[in-house]
Amino acid sequence: MGASDKREEVIQAWYMNESDEDQRLPHHREPKEFVSLDKLAELGVISWRLDADNYENDEELKKIREERGYSYMDFCEVCPEKLPNYEEKIKNFFEEHLHTDEEIRYCVAGSGYFDVRDHNDKWIRVWVEKGGMIVLPAGIYHRFTLDTDNYIKAMRLFVGDPVWTPFNRPHDHLPARKEYIQNFLQNEGGQAVDAAA
């Protein structure tokens, strides 16, 4: 990973092992296989490093919201003390699913894992810490869990009125999934990668 990209101080990604140990562990392969933020961008996952101590007045955040049309904003704290029905919610977040709209999360405190599928349907774990903001494109299969610190406070952004409906895998028939496959998963020969497993 290049030290020149400030995003890598708050966002790291790697291929996951197949272990079914505690989902909050890093799950590195041995040897470790890191994934660049450029590789994530090829999957449609884009990211920024922002000033989480100054989010109310951050001009860069304001510019991103204006350019991308993120008119809605709220906060979600995920930890046993703050989230009602914590055990059920964290289990639901970790169920592989997609959304028909972007999922935008800006970590203003704590940290957590967003797992996404690569072109070959392998899991990539994306660790987002305070100051990291990521956008998961509509139609990408993903899941979320806390790390062993058991705490994240995230700003949730959305275009218009928020729709948080998860569609658990498989939902390949949805237009958002078909568009995602067309935009990000087709290989050079025009063949879609089989993600219906």
Q: Any overview of this molecule?
A:
With 197 residues, the protein is an alpha+beta fold. Helix content is 18%, strand content 30%. It has helices at residues 37-42, 59-68, 86-93, 175-185; strands at 11-15, 46-49, 72-78, 97-98, 103-117, 123-129, 132-136, 142-146, 152-158, 167-168. Strands 1, 2, 3, 5, 6, 7, 8 and 9 form an eight-stranded antiparallel beta sheet that branches. Strand 5 and strand 6 form a beta hairpin. The model has no long low-confidence stretch (mean pLDDT 93).
Descriptors:
alpha+beta, two-stranded antiparallel ribbon, 4 helices, Acireductone dioxygenase, nucleus
Structure at a glance:
The chain is of the alpha+beta class. 18% of the residues lie in helices and 30% in strands.
List the helices and strands and how they pair.
Blueprint lengths: L10 E5 L21 H6 L3 E4 L9 H10 L3 E7 L7 H8 L3 E2 L4 E15 L5 E7 L2 E5 L5 E5 L5 E7 L8 E2 L6 H11 L12
Antiparallel strand pairs: 1-6, 2-7, 3-9, 4-10, 5-6, 5-7, 5-8, 5-9
Spatial gap, N to C terminus: 31 Å
Oligomeric state as shown: single chain
Task: Please tally the β strands and state the result.
Answer: 10
Largest beta-sheet details:
8 strands, antiparallel
Q: Please tally the helical runs, counting DSSP H or I stretches of 4 or more residues.
A: 4
Shape: globular
What is the element string, with H for helices and E for strands?
EHEHEHEEEEEEEH
Averaged pLDDT, please? 93
Strand content: 25-35%
Class by SSE composition: alpha+beta
- Share of helical residues: 10-25%
Specify Rg, calculated over alpha carbons.
Answer: 16 Å
Residue runs with pLDDT of under 50 for 5 or more positions: none
EC number: 1.13.11.54, 1.13.11.53
InterPro entries: ARD, ARD_euk, RmlC-like_jellyroll, RmlC_Cupin_sf
Pathway: Amino-acid biosynthesis; L-methionine biosynthesis via salvage pathway; L-methionine from S-methyl-5-thio-alpha-D-ribose 1-phosphate: step 5/6
Family: Belongs to the acireductone dioxygenase (ARD) family.
